[in-house]
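Journal club prep, shared notes

We agreed each person brings one worked example of a sequence with its structure written out as tokens. Mine is DUF2960 domain-containing protein. I'm keeping it raw so we can talk through how to read the token line rather than staring at a rendered picture. Sequence first:
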Amino acid sequence: MTHKVRYKFNGVAKEISFSYSRYRNMHEAVADAEGLDLTHFLQTEQRVATISKGKATVRNFRDAEFVKMGFTELYFLKNGQE
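Then the structure, token by token:
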């Protein structure tokens, strides 16, 4: 099933289709849509996951890094929401 993700990149609102068969999470999908290479980010995220005690630390790291990359207001659209 395909979902929609809405986000702003450098202040410009955008919407893309998202599928778990193609991406692990919406962050990877929006980075791909904007042509960003996440190689270094994913390596660092893996290190954070290795040393952290909970998922919240990884999520906070991911959210903070994506804001630094220029992403804001990143969320899934509910079914029927336009």
